Amino acid sequence: MFRLLVALSFLLLPLSASAATLTRTGATDVNVSGTFYNVEFLTGTCAAIFSGCDDASDFGLDATSIFAAVFALETLINNTPDIDADISITGCSETRQRENCQIVNPYAEFTVDGRVKTARIENYIQSEDDSDGSYFSCCVRADTDLSNDLETYARWTLSSENPQPATVVPLPASALLMITAFGGLIGGARLSRQRKNT
Predict the structure, then answer these.
(1) Separation of alpha carbons 140 and 39, rounded Å
(2) Given 22, 37, 93, 146, which is the most exposed site by the fewest CB atoms within 10 A?
(3) Residue environment code for 41-68, b if the CB has 16+ CB neighbours within 10 A, otherwise e
(4) Closest CA to 43 of 152, 122, 144
C-alpha cells in the first residue's frame, strides 16, 4: 500500500517546464516571474505588429511585468553565445560592425500624448569596450516603423508552458441522488443483518 501511495504522489507532482530557447527570430518559454512567454522579433510599424498599438490589451507586458521580462530576455541573450556574439537577429544586420541591435519592447503604458512607452535591450557585437544592457526609453507611436538595420520589435505572448487551471466538472443531481440511494440500501442491509444476528 505504501508503494502505491508513493507512486501516486509522483504522478501528482507538477511537470517541470522546458528551458527557454533563443533563436535569431525570437525566444520560447521565457520565464517572467513564474509566467512563461514566447517572444517574436519583428520589423514593421507598431500598429501592424501590435493590433493598432493604441490599447493596453495590444501588448503582452505591462508596467509591472516589463522589468522582469527585459531582465529575463537580456539574460537569455547573454547566455546564448552564438547569438550574443553577433547581432544578426531578425531586424538587425550582422554587417553593421561596431554597431548594436536594439530590441524594442513596447508595454501597456502610454504617455499623455498617446505614445507607447518602451524598454530597449541593446546587444552589441562583442568586443573589449562594448557591453550589452537595457534601459527604458520613451516612446513609439503607432506609425513608428522599425524596418532598419539596428532595431527590431519584441512581441510577447503567453506560452503554452503556463499551467492551465483545473476544470471542475460538476456532479449532476441524478448522480448525487443515486449515491444517496446506494448509501441507504447498504445501510439498510447492514441494519437488517445486525437485527438477525441479535
Answers:
(1) 19
(2) 93
(3) bbbebbbebbeebeeeebbbbeeebbbb
(4) 152
